[in-house]
């Protein structure tokens, strides 16, 4: 388990250099006292591990930029990929002071070694031709975040999946899988969403696609408070969700989504260990009393059972072994 004494830890993503796993995570000081304030103080931390269990923390990867900038208030969730020349690219979410944190945009930074990061000029905004903007006033903020970047299946470029909202439909059911394409990780074309609205989700947070047991699966998270009125009325629970798909670009039928873990855990991330077995980590969101926790779990094995992605290690005694290294 990864936990810091001085900071809350929540959303996270990985890079694997072949020797070590690199964990990038959102963090904010516990001196804020109220964990709900953490979103506006978030920076991107960094830790490494050889086994996904015992972690060494390093200097932060990114902190809010000097203003004015699209990310001068907080830096939020992203993903990391490596180009053919060996340069690492981090795509991440930023919010700014001018917009009072309500308008989300996507930027990037590059690194030769995963430790020192240099921001690029990229600022990718939601396109009103396909995606809801803040001016529509149907949601508290302009959702355009959590970029998940992968190499395109045909090898012609890179695809980015984005937490976004459609321009029409019931406000509490506009959550969609946003999409952008790039031939070179520098120039991006915003494309139409890969799922439709009307499936019971206000937003689909922290997207990830993987192929497990020969089945493509999309993982996302949604809190119970952000489910549609209809889903809440039938007592659907929030948490980590999955939906099976025909390919990494869907199309994704979000109406077929099923719950993998309730919202005591949030932001599930899939990663393969050194023997090729798929694992899921998540951050501990709430305790039994409903209080925010803010730490990252040990890995739990996953596989497909009866056609659904399932946590299969709930009773593995190794999961009781928890470690962290805090260098604060």
UniProtKB/TrEMBL annotation:
Gene Ontology molecular function: any one: beta-fructofuranosidase activity
Signal peptide span: none
InterPro entries, per the entry: GH32_Enzymes, Glyco_hydro_32, Glyco_hydro_32_N, Glyco_hydro_beta-prop_sf
SUPFAM superfamilies: Arabinanase/levansucrase/invertase (SSF75005)
Domain Glycosyl hydrolase family 32 N-terminal: start-end pairs: 19-226
A Pfam family per the record: Glyco_hydro_32N
Keywords: Glycosidase, Hydrolase
SMART domains to which the protein is assigned, alphabetical: Glyco_32 (SM00640)
An example Gene Ontology biological process: carbohydrate metabolic process
EC number per UniProt: 3.2.1.26
Family affiliation: Belongs to the glycosyl hydrolase 32 family.
Protein name in the entry: beta-fructofuranosidase
Organism: Arthrobacter pityocampae
Taxonomic placement: Bacteria, Bacillati, Actinomycetota, Actinomycetes, Micrococcales
């Amino acid at each position: 388990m990864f936990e810091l004494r001085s900071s809350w830890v929540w959303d996270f993503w990985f890079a694997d250099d072949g020797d070590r796993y690199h964990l990038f995570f959102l963090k904010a000081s516990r001196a804020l006292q109220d964990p709900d304030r953490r979103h506006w103080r978030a920076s991107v931390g960094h830790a490494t591990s050889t086994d996904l269990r015992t972690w060494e923390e390093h200097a932060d990867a990114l902190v809010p930029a000097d203003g004015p900038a699209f990310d001068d208030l907080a830096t939020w969730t992203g993903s990391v990929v490596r180009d053919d020349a060996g340069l690492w690219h981090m795509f991440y979410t930023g919010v700014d002071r001018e917009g009072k944190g309500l308008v989300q945009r996507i930027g990037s930074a590059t690194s030769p070694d995963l430790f020192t990061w240099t921001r690029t000029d990229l600022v990718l905004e939601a396109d009103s031709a396909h995606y809801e903007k803040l001016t529509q006033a149907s949601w508290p903020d302009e959702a355009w975040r959590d970029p998940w970047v992968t190499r395109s299946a045909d090898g012609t470029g890179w695809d980015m999946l984005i937490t976004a909202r459609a321009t029409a439909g019931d406000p509490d059911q506009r959550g969609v899988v946003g999409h952008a394409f790039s031939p070179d990780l520098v120039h991006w074309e915003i494309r139409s969403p890969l799922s439709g609205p009307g499936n019971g989700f206000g937003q689909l947070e922290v997207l990830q696609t993987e192929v497990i047991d020969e089945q493509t699966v999309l993982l996302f998270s949604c809190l119970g408070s952000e489910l549609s009125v209809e889903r809440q009325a039938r007592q659907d629970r929030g948490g980590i969700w999955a939906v099976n798909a025909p390919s990494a670009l869907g199309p994704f039928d979000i109406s077929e989504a099923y719950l993998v873990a309730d919202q005591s855990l949030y932001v599930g991330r899939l990663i393969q260990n050194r023997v090729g077995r798929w694992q899921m980590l998540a951050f501990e969101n709430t305790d039994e009393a409903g209080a925010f926790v803010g730490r990252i779990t040990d890995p739990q094995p996953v596989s497909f059972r009866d056609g659904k992605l399932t946590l299969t290690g709930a009773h593995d005694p190794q999961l009781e072994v928890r470690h962290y290294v805090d260098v604060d």
